[in-house]
User: What shape does this take?
Amino acid sequence: MKQPLIHPTAIIDPKAELGAGVAVGPYTVIGPEVVIGDETVIGNMVTLQGKTTIGKKNRIGAYTSIGMAAQDKEHWVDDCLVDIGDENDIREYVSIHRGTFKHDEPGITKIGSHNQIMVYCHFAHDTTLGDNCMLANNSTLGGHVHFGSNIVTGGLSAYHQFTRVGSYAMVGGMSACFQDVPPYCMCTGPRGMIFGINRVGLSRKGFDTEQIAQIQDLYNRYFASKKVPSKAFQEILQVKNPPEVWGRFIQFIETSVRGIAPKG
Assistant: This one.
């Protein structure tokens, strides 16, 4: 069993659990309730606190902080969690805060696996991120923001509390999203508006020509029909034997609370 490689200046609570082959850089601080999976590499001056579980083969960059208390004046419960999957590339100065028990949330901030999270990204309390996402520098997720999988964000993009971004969506740089971004769509601008489907991204993720055409048809029915969204959506629900790829979009619209970002 490969032993952890720990720099002598690192401060690690004896109750922390480090898997085989974990590497910890200089001046990093790890608290007593932290669990780190095998072969995860942690840079210098990283802070890991709270009930934080980190999976296998992650790379965590310098000056990152994970598991700190939620930035919420009304909530200081210590039982909340951070749960991170496997093989994520979490770069320098990223901050990931613990969850809360407010608004019926389970008290978990959860990051999936195989994500690329670039410099200065921020995950506020009770955020979730799926798998295989790429978040550019300074992507900022407010409290209770939920991302699906296979999402790409541009640098300096921001997401209002309680908004969602659906799987296979792409958000442009310097965008501010105040409402939900549906799956498959491209969103950009200071008020987060929808501009077509993420055609290139869908192709790269293995959607074939027929599936992309089906998604384009769905987009046209909802965003380009010149009907109010509620009426357009009801007509979509009445389509007999809809394509399978429509299901993710329909479920997303049905469960929206903040409403759907408008067409640009």
